[in-house]
Amino acid sequence: MSKETPAHHLPVAHPPKRLWQKIASVIAKGSFGMAALGVVATLIYGGDVEADIKAAMGATTFFCFAVGVVCQAMGGTSIPNLTPAPKDSEK
Question: Is residue 35 a contact partner of residue 68, using CB atoms and an 8 Å limit?
Answer without folding.
Answer: yes
